[in-house]
Amino acid sequence: MADLLTDSEFEKFRKLIYDESGITFSDTNRSVLDSRIKERLREEKIDTVEEYYNRVLADKEEMKLMLDSVTTNLTRFFRNQPHFDALVNYVIPHLLEEKKNSADKTIRVWSAGCSTGEEPYTIAMILKDILPAPYTFAITASDISLKSLMVGRQGFYPTARINGVPENYLERFFTKTETGYQVKKELMDTIHFDYHNLQHDSGSKNLDIIFCRNVLIYFDEAAQLSVIDRFWNSMSPSSYLFIGHSESLFGMKTKFEFLKTEWACLYQKNLK
Known about the structure:
Low-confidence stretches: none
Number of strands: 10
């Protein structure tokens, strides 16, 4: 077996991954794709790159596993605290004001690219803590990585992964074990973990908040714009979008308004 993908093999996988997920591989991160594909060949005991490519084309489950293997999942609880400060001090008060005369008292949140679940659990803890009655919330957490989703669904985190969780939240929402912390059922029940490829429509409607942080950096501009447009169509008339602090919609033809708060910058859909 060759040490590296040939140019033609790299191009075939690069195009396949882009068409399926919007994730872009260039010459600068070619080695990552190379190592992940070779790892799948070893795990599946397949001898040639061509044989594996044909397997991926014919097997939807292997396609999911291959896409899982080429993604990077880095996250932690309360990652980029200013975003959560803006959520507490700006976004939630505005949403409560919007909904005060409405029969709909549910705040709908999508954590897109949720990785192993720390982000949606962080949002859930905050909303459990600050939402007054009769308001409730529902969180959908999605990712293209099946392995990451399984961790989120199980809700168990080793002690080292709990860094950043305030002590009062730790006591209220987790059960300590010998090897780590288990999220309590009352919090787990507020989150629906689901596989989703951002290249496709989620089917969601009237979302009040979307977190999609440090995901767009893996897409080229055309794929980014497609994702952002789908977000717009899935959101309520007055709603909020959080993207990564190193990401920006600047220069892109989107309908979102840039919103600079005292705590963090985000984007707003405002049709009122």
